[in-house]
Structure formats: C-alpha cells, structure tokens
Automatic annotation (TrEMBL), chain A:
Residues 23-56 form the ChsH2 rubredoxin-like zinc ribbon domain. SUPFAM superfamilies: Nucleic acid-binding proteins. It comes from the Bacteria. Transmembrane segments: none annotated. InterPro entries: ChsH2_C, ChsH2_Znr, NA-bd_OB-fold, Thioester_dehydratase-like. Residues 61-124 form the ChsH2 C-terminal OB-fold domain. This is Zn-ribbon domain-containing OB-fold protein.
Automatic annotation (TrEMBL), chain B:
Gene3D superfamilies: 3.40.47.10. Pfam families: Thiolase_C_1. InterPro entries: Thiolase, Thiolase-like, Thiolase_C_2. Signal peptide: none annotated. This is Thiolase C-terminal domain-containing protein. Residues 243-387 form the Thiolase C-terminal domain. It comes from Paraconexibacter antarcticus.
C-alpha cells in the first residue's frame, strides 16, 4: 500500500550496476546506447547481457539524439500528486535513429499540441534533481 | 500431448457487493464472495484445500491468498498470490485447473477483492497503479497507467483509421449492458457525444473512455469434472482452453504497439479447446480502456486486423451482433476493483453459460471466451469455457 507521502514524491531513477553509466552519460549530455559487439544489436534498455544473443560484450556509444515520434499521449490527468503541476504534458514513444524505442517527454515549454506521429525530434538532456538528468525531446 | 480440456469444472461463483462499498476491506470483499461461491457449490470451507488469489492495492498483505485463508479460517495445502497485472484472473483458472489435474489440490478457491474506490483516495489509486511502470525508464516521465494503453490505441487510430467516435461507442455499449445488470456501478445511459465531451485524461482517452475505480470482490470454486459429477452439480461450466502470452515488459520493447499478445494467447486457448473465434457465443474482454477492447477483438480473431472500430460501430459486440461482449458492463460500467476486476468478466460469462442472466441472457450460449490483459499489453491470458454439451 502506498502512503500519501510516497505518492507526493516524484519517482526518480535509482542507478544500479546495469544503468549507472547510462545516467552518468545523460548528466554529460549524452544518450548512451549499448551496442553488442557479438551480434551488433543496439539496446536502449541497459542490461548486463545482450537480450538477443546473451553476450556480455556490450559497448556504450552516444546516440545521435535524433528520432521520430512513434506514438504519444498528452496527459491531462496526472498519475497522482507528483505531476499535477505539469499538466498538460506530452509523453512520447520515440523511435531513435539507431532503431531502439524509448519513453520520453516533450520538454517543458514546448507546446504539446504540436506533437504528431512520425515528427522528427531532437534530444534535450534536462537536469531534474541532484545527479539525475532525464532524456527529453524537442521538435527538431 | 496431455490437455486440460474439459477436465476442470467451475462449480461455484460468488460476487461481493461492488461499486462503492465503504468500510469493507479487500479481505472482507474476497471472503464475502468466497462464502457465496461455497454456498453456490454446496460445499463448506473445510472442503477447500487450494486458494489462488491476487494482490490488492488497498491491502497491506503481500501474501493476500495466505491472509485470505486465515481470514476464512482455513489451512490450504496449495496456495499462491498471482501477479501478472490485469491478466492475473485468467491465469488463476489455468493454474487452478492444472493444479487439480496434477493432484496438487482437489477444490481450489479462486478469489480476490480490493477497495480501490473507498480504501484509497483517487490520487493514491492512480499512483498505486502507475507504480507498476519502470522506475528508471518510464515513471520519471510522469506516465499514468492509462498512458501505455493510450499510446497503443493512438497509433492504432493513425495506422487503421480508428476514430474517437468508434472508441466512444465501446463505452456506450458497455453502459447499455450495465443498465441491465443488477448492482452495476454506472447505469445512467450515455451517448457518443457524452464520451467525447467528458474531460480529457490522456489523449486519445476521455474520462468515459477509461474504466471505473471501484470496490468489490469475486470468487469461484474449481473442481475436477469427476468431483463435479459426483457432487451432482447440474450447472457446471468447464474449462476447455487456456493460453497465456508475455511479449515484453516495457512498452518501448513491445514488438508492435498495434498487434498484441492476445493473438498468441488466444491461439493457444482455441487450439486446446478445438474451436475458433467464430464458435464463441459470448465473450468477456478486458476493457480497461475503450481502445483496448477494439484491439483485443481483432487479435482474438473476432474481426480482421484494423477492423475493430467498424466492428464495434456496426453493432457486433452487443445482442444480435457477432459476439456479445461484457454483457455485465465490464470495467467501464459494471466495476473495476483492480486485479479482481477481470474476475467479474468470468462471473458474467459463466452466468451466461449457466443460462442465469435473465433479461440480459444471450440465447443458447454454450461457448464463452474471457480474455484478460495487463501492464500495457505485456501480459495476456485467454480462457475458453463451455457447458456440459461442449465438453
């Protein structure tokens, strides 16, 4: 059961061994993708072994930051009190130029009503808290 | 290959009061439904040796099935608290059937209850459900539980021309069905315009495109077909097929956001049952959102891929149509009490197969399907049920 205090707090990523480098990269302004050196698969979701071939030979390379909006939904009713002040905001399912998809958000200040399917977007790294930078996007 | 087809009977069903049930805990709601199911089956609690349940958002018990057993005053030798989000209920029937066929238990209680409406504030209920999204890659962006489903439906509209009016028609039909169902939470008639002018929640979903938040519980007693016969159960309903499919965890790793695991889970269930979608007389389809129903209808084989919108608009999911769906009103209008919500679909389809639905009875209902799904289409489970004649 969730408490009102927990619900009022914004959920923030908690870096672990699989993701520490990824979050450190974002703090530097880079979106790091994992490239499998064994099968060439490219992953957004960071894991200690390749989801396709199981290899642990994975290398981080910075993404171009360009992508397209595969789908989106503009949130008017926030999921609890932590996000109430930010509505309306556009949650994006971005397809990166390199192939992987990711959940993200249109940067604050950009008009959510301009978002459309397949529009091109550009990465913006947004610091949100001590040591946490989120990968957001703006219209390209 | 061995099969579960026809080996397990559902011999008792029960519902607690649903909708707004203030002051009642998730355990009471599940136990109240369990007592009704036991009475329906003509058994007593001491007959039960198996208990399967689902967790409750408004309950502190991690082992809800164990806490429920204690609450009922029984000490089962087979139990689990299952968790695959909205698909949980359908998996409980397959697991219960397998446990009975395999000798792990003789009489299995499947029961769940939650008090999402009065046990939690609306803010806490929404945040609790959103907690199932990924802490690192999804939740920080403020993604409501509705959002993953909204994005799949949104792309479906883009790719197949599904319209807001067709989505709204799903809600209208469910409300019409709920109006005929005693105890349903929302029964006032609504129109397509009402749906489209209700508050936007997350595009393309308005408030009336979204399921309710409710209190309630449901329970079932499962037994072998042999035990059902020796007990003299006359209205037993049999499990004929069951299938599950898990295609991803994160929405951004869903292979296609417009084609779902319902195709795979239902293919397995149809193969076990030896039937196809065109044989199904009545269906329960998880309706957390209007677009979810449209996409599921396609992947369950009731219509061609992309035709779900016109299928609904042309009257195919209500009486006189191809397959009456959610004749109790579903999560959209009957009640949505978290994980117990999809047990209500089972309760209705079983009641239809028993011929016990009064003026909302689907004539000659012999074969029924229930499809449950959850976690942004990550989990899918299909169960096919039938009368003695179909066994």
């Amino acid at each position: 059961m969730i408490t009102p205090e927990q619900a009022a707090a914004k959920p923030l990523p908690m870096p672990d061994a699989d993701t520490a480098e990824f979050w450190a990269g974002l703090a530097r302004g880079e979106l790091l993708l994992q490239h499998c050196l064994s099968c060439s698969a490219i992953h957004y979701y960071q894991q200690g072994m390749c989801r396709i071939c199981g290899s642990s030979h994975l290398e981080h390379r910075a993404a171009s930051g360009r992508g397209t909006v595969h789908s989106f939904s503009v949130v008017h009713r926030a999921p609890g009190p932590a996000f109430k002040d930010e509505t309306p905001y556009a949650v994006l399912l971005v397809e990166l130029e390199e192939g992987p998809r990711m959940i993200s958000r249109l940067v604050a200040g950009a008009d959510p009503s301009v978002v459309d399917f397949d529009m091109t977007v550009q990465l913006v790294c947004v610091p949100v808290d001590e040591g946490v930078t989120l990968p957001c996007f703006r219209p390209a | 290959m061995s099969t579960l087809r026809g080996k397990t009977a559902i011999i008792g069903c029960g519902l607690s009061p649903v909708g707004r049930v203030p002051g009642r805990s998730p355990l009471w709601l599940a136990a109240d439904a369990a007592n009704t199911a036991l009475e329906d089956a003509g058994l007593t609690k001491s007959d039960l040796d198996g208990v399967l349940s689902a967790g409750a958002f408004a309950s502190p018990f991690h082992r809800f099935s164990v806490a429920l057993s204690e609450y009922l005053g029984i000490q089962p030798t087979f139990s689990n608290t299952l968790q695959v989000s909205g698909a949980t209920a359908a998996t409980a029937f397959g697991i219960g059937a397998a446990a009975i066929a395999g000798g792990l238990a003789r009489y299995v209680l499947v029961a769940a209850g939650d008090s999402l409406l009065t046990g939690l504030t609306p803010d806490l209920a929404l945040r609790s459900m959103s907690e199932s999204r990924d802490q690192q890659y999804e939740m920080p962006f403020g993604i409501p539980v509705a959002n993953t489903f909204a994005m799949t439906a949104h792309r479906h509209m883009r790719d197949y021309g599904t319209t807001p009016e067709q989505l709204a028609q799903v809600a209208v039909v469910h409300r019409e069905h709920a109006a005929r169902t005693p105890g349903a939470q929302m029964t006032a008639p609504i129109t397509i315009d009402d749906v489209l002018s209700s508050k936007m929640v997350t595009t393309p979903y308005h408030k009336l495109d979204c399921s309710l938040i409710s209190d309630g519980g449901a329970a079932f007693i499962l037994a072998s077909a042999e035990d059902a016969a020796s007990l003299g159960i006359e209205n037993a309903v049999y499990l004929l097929g069951a299938g599950e499919a898990y295609t991803h965890e994160h929405i951004f790793l869903m292979p296609s956001i417009t084609s779902t695991g319902a195709a795979l889970s239902s293919a397995k269930a149809y193969a076990m049952a030896g039937c196809t979608a065109s044989d199904i007389d009545v269906a329960g389809v998880y309706d957390c959102f209007t677009g979810t129903v449209i996409m599921a209808l396609e992947d369950l084989g009731f219509c061609a891929k992309g035709d779900g919108g016109p299928f609904v608009a042309d009257g195919h999911i209500t009486y006189g149509g191809t397959v009456p769906v959610n004749t109790h009103g579903g999560l959209l209008s009957f009640a949505h009490a978290g994980l117990p919500g999809s047990l209500f679909h089972f309760h209705e389809v079983i009641a239809q197969l028993r011929g016990a639905c009064g003026d909302r009875q689907v004539p000659d209902a012999e074969l029924g399907l229930v499809h449950c799904l959850g976690a942004g289409w990550a989990a899918n489970a299909t169960v096919i049920l039938g009368t003695e004649a179909t066994r």
